[in-house]
Amino acid sequence: MREGMLSRLGLSTTQTKGSLAGWIIALLPLSFFVFFCTLIEPVAMGEPIRISYPWIPSLGVELSFLIDGLSLLFALIISGVGTFIIIYAGGYLAGHHQIGHMYTYLILFMISMLGLVLSDNIISLFVFWELTSITSYLLIGFKHEYQDSRYSALQALLVTGAGGLVLLAGLILLGVVGGSWQLSELFGRGEAIQDHELYLPMLILVLIGAFTKSAQFPFHFWLPNAMAAPTPVSAYLHSATMVKAGVFLLARLTPVLGGTSTWFFILTIVGGITMVMGAFLAIFRTDLKSILAYTTINGLGTLVFLLGLGTELAIEAAIVFLMVHSLYKGALFMVAGSVDHETGTRDIRELGGLGKYMPITAVAGGLAALSMMGMPPFLGFVGKEIIYKSAFGVAEHHMFLIMLAVLAMAFVGKVLTGVSAGLVTVSPFLGSKTTTPKNPHEAPISMWLGPVVLSALGLLLGLSVAFSKGLQDMIVAPAMGAVLHEHEVHAKLALWYGTEPETLMVFGLSMLTIVAAIGIYIRGRGTFASISQRVTMPWNAEQGYQFALNGMQSLARWQTRVLQHGYLQGYLLVVAMTLAGFGGLAFFSQVGLVAPVWSPQFPMVHEWLIAGMMLVATVLTIRLDSLLGAIVALGVVGYAVALIFILYAAPDLAITQFSIETLTVILFVLVLYRRQTITHLLEEEIARDSPAKRIRDLLIAGSVGVFITSIMLAITSEPLVSELKHFFAEESVPHGKGHNVVNVILIDFRGLDTMGEITVLGVAAIGVYSLIKLWFARDAENNTS
Amino acid sequence: MESLLAFVVGGLYAGGIYLMLRRSMIKLIFGLVLLGHASNLLIFTVGRLTSDQPPLVPDGAETLTEPFADPLPQALILTAIVIGFGMQAFALVLVKRMFLTARTDDVHAITTTDTF
């Protein structure tokens, strides 16, 4: 009870502690923000700033940073929104036992994101790009005890990670074709790169990377699922920053890859589909965060669409809309999180009349929604006007029909976004009070500060356009200059452009958008939710993802079953066939068959006898079903080897071979016959395999034999050149002080080897001893029991 | 004689691999022993055979005079013989232990570690 009272006042002990940490940690992004603010003027006035540290110079990889209008704008958004997000997370997750992890991941993410937008080297850009994927995986999966969190985190990682790999291929092509890994150098080589025959594959690879990251159709499905993340994460990653990384990349590479008709059509079509689809799907959702997620897809589609148009006006519209979207969407996500936090539900059907209980949150949400609808004098209105202006401007470059299509897509997208703005604010905050799982009350200051500041900025920046040129000259124009790669760029922002026919048309369309949005909202707000329950999509992109994932897993299972089956014979067959097949192919194609050489001396009778004896003994080892017989046959082979050593001047080998062979035979008989004879085993074995299998094995083993024989015939047909032979013969006595050269090699020249050999033997002896010991212990146990 | 040994070594390889492809663990070890012999003979043969002088420097002499047997392959083979013996001994005891536990020497019966 007491706990409840305190937390209602926002004063519970854990809550204050958690938020306090948030306030302190927020000083880090805040200091970044202040630092970037000090760079606004130098960047707007002069040249971009470049800072470079060597990283892997031999590969052209540098840790280099490029601060120009575009990267500075993104850096300001990332650090500015990040400051409020950290404070908000402190309030939202107050008392959560892993809140420290959240702060860590958020800061790591912010730094990766800053690295991404500020990179000049495309390889370091890629490294930061992947770091944002990894940190977003940790952030989406923050509530890892829930299965859907883990599922969504993995999905986001797989989609953006796979896109990242495709992007890497594209960037490498870009670096190779462009002859530089520095963006600042590539900017000037756009025409040469676009004329290259690898332009199209490079463009498609880069675009796939950007589209997966920025949730463009058909890769959009991961973004609504990523709403399983805690709200501060959704507000930061999935509205203001990470999903804009793809948009950033497209803007960054516009001077290099942009401006071609391929670029125009792919970006406008994909962006247009995403824009309309996101806005359309949003109005049928009932979950606040889900509505916002789909409108984010719409916003990202709009940005890609505008970058595709590529005119100066369209770029200006993209830059302004980027700011508009970050401000209202960040604020609205945080508002949605506060509503969820204080009432216990995010379903708009269960919410209503909250304005009385959460006045500050309601005002912040209302301001953000007005900017989202594009109501004058909000920044959203300024942004929408330029979007329509740039759509009209398409007629200068393309057919009238294309202009109409562009305009229609922009209009539909904007109207439906306006409807969504109503759904996420009017429905929960106005109307009659409903019963919610928790009794609603105002959120703590840590949770309303961010929405209030961000939504108020949307209003203030909109108003500032009327009487100051600060925004257009210091922020928008430098960013446009970076995208267009031109120095003299003029932006024109205004709330009222005058009374020329064209500007009046734009203004009229803008007003029509608002009226249409309000009309649709009023007529349809009750029915959207019920429609979505009745209509189910026959197929969606997420099923494609599932299909690909399942397919990959079955492929992995299949190949593991086939390759890692657990049967020794199978592995040996593969080894033997590879040796005989590939080795044989290489050998016979390069060298060919070499005939045996029977000169200078034809083998004598005893040599033929030894050879024949060995082959007969080998066959007997294979064929005999008596264990003792097989052991003896094996011994005969060993003794015959020793005989060869005697005949060909290797007395040391012969002595060793004789003693080892004797030991081996004794050991085999001792081990195999002691305690429990297993003589019947070979008889059993012969019955195990079918004749067909035996013939197959015989053929494979035989071909290995043929391969080895051919190699040996080829080698021995050439004269031997050995410098080592003479080195050892000459050095043994003076340096090794020994007359037996083989022994000197073993204990002197290759002494370390011999030590290793002794160690191996020792280890084997320990192994044998312990196995035998175990076996006696088992015996003793059995006897007593 | 090198050519003759080439055929012998090929035969030993074929026999060794054929034995290793059997399902009996004991035959697997027999196969390993044959492969060991085959490899030693291969090194010995490609180092060329000579029946003249073993690599022993006569008393009083400082160095060997041609023709003499190459000492290097012999040193390598000496190491290989001893290591091979160590491995055979260990494998043999292991197979016997396995037989006492699993009551079979069929490798197909022991494809998982979970049964025993």
What does the secondary structure layout of this molecule look like, with pairings?
The complex is a heterodimer of chains A (785) and B (116).
Chain A: H1 2-8, H2 13-25, H3 27-45, E1 49-56, E2 61-67, H4 69-92, H5 99-118, H6 122-140, H7 147-178, H8 183-186, H9 190-195, H10 199-213, H11 222-225, H12 231-240, H13 244-257, H14 261-282, H15 288-309, H16 312-343, H17 359-373, H18 379-393, H19 400-429, H20 445-467, H21 470-484, H22 501-524, H23 528-534, H24 541-563, H25 568-590, H26 605-623, H27 627-647, H28 651-673, H29 680-688, H30 691-716, H31 723-736, H32 741-749, H33 751-784
Antiparallel strand pairs in A: 1-2
Helix pairs in contact in A: 2-4, 3-4, 3-21, 4-5, 4-12, 4-16, 4-20, 4-21, 5-6, 6-7, 7-10, 10-13, 12-16, 13-15, 14-15, 14-19, 15-16, 15-19, 16-17, 16-18, 16-20, 16-21, 17-19, 17-20, 18-19, 18-20, 18-22, 19-22, 25-30, 26-27, 27-28, 31-32, 32-33
Chain B: H1 2-20, H2 25-46, H3 71-102
Helix pairs in contact in B: 1-2, 2-3
Please sum up the structure shown.
With 785 residues, chain A is mostly helical.
Description:
The complex is a heterodimer of chains A (785) and B (116). Chain A is mostly helical. Chain A is 76% helix and 2% strand. Chain A contains 33 helices and two strands. Chain A has helices at residues 2-8, 13-25, 27-45, 69-92, 99-118, 122-140, 147-178, 183-186, 190-195, 199-213, 222-225, 231-240, 244-257, 261-282, 288-309, 312-343, 359-373, 379-393, 400-429, 445-467, 470-484, 501-524, 528-534, 541-563, 568-590, 605-623, 627-647, 651-673, 680-688, 691-716, 723-736, 741-749, 751-784; strands at residues 49-56, 61-67. In chain A, strands 1-2 form a two-stranded antiparallel sheet. In chain A, strand 1 and strand 2 (61-67) form a beta hairpin. In chain A, helix 17 packs parallel to helix 20. The longest helix of chain A has 34 residues, at 751-784. With 116 residues, chain B is mostly helical. Chain B has a single domain, classed as Helix Hairpins, CATH 1.10.287. Chain B has helices spanning 2-20, 25-46, 71-102. In chain B, helix 1 packs antiparallel against helix 2 (25-46) and helix 2 packs antiparallel against helix 3 (71-102). The longest helix of chain B has 32 residues, at 71-102. Chain B is elongated, with a radius of gyration of 20 Å.
